[in-house]
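Retro notes
What went well: the complex prediction finally ran end to end.
Inputs used:
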Amino acid sequence: MPTHYKRQIHFTMSEQPSELHCRRYWQKNITLVMILLGVWFVVSLGAGILFRDWLDEALPKVGNAPLGFWMAQQGSIICFVIILYVYKHMMNKLEGEEGFTSKK
Amino acid sequence: MSQDYWNYIFIGLSFVLYIGIAVRSRAGSTKEYYTAGGGVSPLANGMATAADWMSAATFISMAGTIAISGYDASRFLMGWTGGFVLLTILMVPFLRKFGKATVPDFIGDRYYSKLARAVAVLCAIFICMTYIMGQMRGVGVVFSQLFGIDIPLGVAIGAGIVFVYAGLGGMKGITYTQVAQYCVMAFAYTIPAIFIAIALTNNFVPQLGLIGDYTAGMTDSIPFLTKINNINTELGFSEYTSGKMSKVNMFCITAALMCGTAGLPHVIVRFFTVKNVRAVRSSACWTLLFIAVIYLTAPTIGAFSRVNLIEKLNNTSYSEAPAWFKDFEETGQMAWVDKNNDGKIQYSGPGKSEAGTSSPFLGAKPTYPAYDAPKDQRIGVHGERLLAVKADMTNPNELWFGNDIMVMANPHMAGLPKWVIALLMAGCIAAALSTAAGLLLVLSTSISHDLMKKIIKPDLTDKEEVKYARMASFVALGVAAYFGINPPSAFIAKTVAFAFGLAASSFFPTLLMGIFSKKMNKEGAIAGMLAGISFTLGYIIFFQFLGGKPEQYLLGISPEGIGCVGMLINFAVAFLVSSFTPAPPQEVVDMVESIRLPDNPNDEGGSAPPVVH
């Protein structure tokens, strides 16, 4: 891929990703982690426990299951898998953007 | 062909497979012994971690816990899977980048202190011991089921097998064996669920059956969850989908399980076996996917088998009860006390009793007369097995069954083919063996590497270190087996839950602050760890062993959830102490900066595999 190729040249010259790249990488990492943790909290402890009564009554059912109950027993787990997939994808992208992609 | 033959064939075949793999991929060096050489593929490591993670407790008793407590059991489902999210985005990529073999290693280096390392080793030993006790119990349950022997003997046999098994393969052997074990477990868990889903809801996807209609009755089909709620309320239990645990307690237990998962040393160590940080993330993704396959099935098994068990047994006369009931009675996993002498099995919950009790007998577990007691003390008028404990006459319930029964008896109850039952047995054994082996490895390396080599005798040679590791695993297994035979608490899942509370209050905050705070120093970390774990342990011991009453719970939080409070105490104490003690030295700050960055693109093949010595 051309973008990767360009970055490769860049780092062969400067040996290390620059100070700026490192700082920006860490900040973006923190932002991503915060967002994902927010989603994580809302789908599990939020939807499954704290607000489950409201979810059960006010929102539509999943099949025959009240939404809060379903989130606690099934939905949250499905969301967790999605969260991890998004994390993996976004971090790999971020590493590419900030020049941390390895040669292989 | 009889059930026993099927069992022996399936279990025999699976053992041949595991041992074959363990021998083929046994560790050739100490590095392979501790971290499998660091070259395992993300997919394989994902499966192995899932098998390591899915303990006997999860496999055997989680569905039973769900069947008994319904919505309340969601704390285990969310707690154990949700913790994986924390583990993946907050912990393992950074610890992998750090690149040492054990968790106390990281804590010792990050907090530049032997004391911190020693405290971490102590915490690791506590946590692994608590956890492995539950595993040994699980092994015992499976073997007792399998060979019709008592649980204590089953525990002893299991301990022997695990010792031989973990000592031989090291991390490399364990990893590839666990891949095979995961496959066995996944099939063993999902196939019975599919059969039961078809039988009860006419839907071959159990997860859809759960939210679908109950079609097994002759009458019009009704939503399955309505059916199970009706059964529960009719028999005097709280509604299945409502639960009765307080919100604050539920929240605390779930949070403690989540944070505990992220601090469990034996899971973290698993991610040291892959090539680099990028592979860690991918591997964690696979792991959670594989875990989700089982965790999404567990609630369906719990709900289906509860309906099935009650429909089959309630108001059935003992003489007509299915054969499996008598088998489980024989192994002490089910019991019947004919309180009203009508010869029928009656099952009911606390709602049917004025005293609010529901146990058929006094005490938590059934006990039986000695084998050489006169026959009329052992066998009742209907041919049932008599108990040595007195009946609890404050309630009408006559049926007792352990949590383990829901998974174990499930295929019997649904009348599934014999090979399915045999497969399930093989799966149970795989679950127990894989986790016990993984834990034992961490336990023994904690003692040999972190305690002996890094603290007590730095001049230890490789050979001696491995010798200490073996000795440590032998002693640890002995202690674990003792507690497996005499469990300090009634249910396996509960015993395990304490390990998570301890991990949540000790490792999780300390690791988190070590990675995300450059200001955290050794004084703060040590004080925090000690405060967190001693508070949590004290609370657990007070309520579990010293007879504390539930009315004395702090804010209504039970011992299972107190790890959550212990964690907050850890954070608070750590920040307080670190604010008036000297900041960490520059090289530690540099180290923290370096682990925050991914692999350097100019290093060949990412960061180097962990350096053990």
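What we learned: Chain B touches chain A through 54 residues (CB under 8 Å).
What to try next: split runs per interface for comparison.
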